[in-house]
Design brief:
With 300 residues, the chain is of the alpha/beta class. The chain is 23% helix and 21% strand. The chain is built from six helices and twelve strands. A hairpin with a 2-residue loop joins strand 3 and strand 4.
Amino acid sequence: MREKKSYNVAVVGATGLVGQKMIQVLEEREFPVNRLVPVASERSAENKIYFRGEEIRVQVLDAEVFREVDISLFSAGAAVSLDYAPVSAESGAVVIDNSSAWRMDPAIPLVVPEVNPDAMKNHNGIIANPNCSIIQLRTGDSAEPFYPHHIANNCLPHIDVFNSNGYTKEEMKMIFETRKIMGLPELAITATTVRVPVKTGHSESVNLEFEHPFELEEIYRLLKEAPGIVVQDEPDKNSYPMPILAEDRDEVFVGRIRRDESIKNGLNLWIVADNLRKGAATNAVQIAELLVRQNLLQRN
């Protein structure tokens, strides 16, 4: 019997929220890890993390930690990724980066495995994980320094800084990254992003306009057959996606599926997912799984 191959995996930002979740997901999904290399800044050095029942010391980020690493999962911010993702790639690892550093670089694939897995075939050592805010929205006075207004019992139509066109940086990320993932650079898309005081999860009200007429039955069928999607849409039973139900789940939940009566061929959806998992950690690990399954750890 052929022996199953395993891989050395570095997690950069291992002590942060997403880094910890990446390590958890690697273990849950039984990714074939030979050696885990948790990496963080100097102030987190000597911390310990636990993986598969083993205590592992966190290493300080430098070029040496990537020696003999096959896959590097980065979640330590754009500045760190810009400095060290090329270093890791040059050492022979394939980098899966969760920051904004490489997402809009035309030479770097931006990948959602269920949507555009073929984009990975052209990687040159770095693959970008799409945007998803990882800030946990807290209530109470301790949260106030992070926001321009009171967040508890409130909604702020303001994520990141405002651009000169009136859109926030987060909204423009959603526009540009959706176009890149879909391979549709001229796609007409707009977004308004709002902070709400929930513990975990991103929720989206999505409006689509199709070129041709459609049947709702076909929409339901396509969604139910799509990998990673859970249709939760029984309004007569008050059943629809909510962040509290999506917490610590890898699936994307879709509901409130209905025609948009204001436009021809319009469709409304309500979509919810755990932003730490599918929005960040799980998607990164799924990319790693595809790299292994499609034998894409070799460079082009």
